[in-house]
Write a structure and sequence with these properties.
By secondary structure, the chain is of the alpha+beta class. 16% of the residues lie in helices and 34% in strands. The protein contains four helices and eleven strands. Strands 1, 2, 3, 4, 5, 6, 7, 8, 9, 10 and 11 form an eleven-stranded mixed sheet that branches. Strand 3 and strand 4 form a beta hairpin. The longest helix is centred in the middle third of the chain and has 13 residues. It starts with a strand and ends in a 5-residue tail after the last helix.
């Protein structure tokens, strides 16, 4: 966990792969508790520290996670995430796509996603089916290496495993994502998906906040550090 931005109302940290945002049945210490401890120590807070979870990242994903430090900020951020006023950009590494670097706005993907709770997996369809929810994202090709392609993704909806599911549907599963069709896992159990950038109007000060996550230290990610 690396703090990226903080003030009296919010804190944004860069999550490492393997960290869980909230507690689950594994019993592992969640990121929310790590951030509480950080605030308690840094600001010498007596008693319990308030911290509100406003969104999540899957365990094998790294990058930006925002928390609310006050109840006022929590209520406003929950609404901002609900209506799409927090703009998030992701980077993903996929098997090489034999297309040039994208000029312009990129490609819009529209699918209908069905979540299977028992499998903890989502399935994408090209048309509406029973119990499906519409899912949209836009992706751009940023760079290529010999074997891989770096893509930038903007989400327009917030469905379960949406980026993983939709990229897999078009034949570009994220590197390391066995669940969605990658042939091999990454050694550290991660998948090559990074919550890279976040932009929003501060819920209290009304200033525009822009934050960027550092690239993971992994050699493959670092190959794209000059993008």
């Amino acid at each position: 966990m690396t703090p990226i931005y903080e003030d009296n109302h919010i804190i944004i940290v860069s999550k490492q792969t393997g960290e869980i945002v909230q507690g689950d049945k594994t019993g592992d210490t969640p990121l929310s508790e790590t951030v509480k401890d950080y605030i308690k120590i840094k600001y010498q807070k007596p008693g319990n520290v308030f911290l509100g979870v406003v969104h999540r990242l899957d365990r094998p994903v790294s990058g930006l996670v925002m928390f609310a430090r006050t109840s006022k900020a929590l209520a406003r951020l929950n609404e901002m995430f609900r209506v799409g006023d927090v703009h998030k950009t992701y980077w993903a590494i996929v098997p090489r796509i034999n297309e040039p670097v994208t000029e312009g706005d990129g490609t819009l993907l529209t699918h209908w996603i069905v979540r299977n709770e028992k499998q903890n997996k989502s399935y994408a369809y090209d048309h509406e089916v029973k119990d499906s929810k519409k899912a949209q994202l836009r992706y751009k090709i940023l760079a290529h290496s010999d074997r891989y392609t770096l893509v930038e993704v903007q989400l327009y909806t917030g469905r379960h495993h949406q980026i993983r599911c939709q990229l897999s549907k078009i034949g570009s599963p994220i590197k390391g994502d066995l669940k969605y069709g990658s042939p091999r896992s990454n050694k550290d159990g991660s998948i090559c998906l990074l919550s890279r950038y976040m932009e929003f109007v501060h819920p209290v000060s009304k200033e525009t906040i822009k934050v960027t996550a550092p690239l993971p230290e992994d050699a493959l990610w670092q190959a794209f550090k000059n993008v």
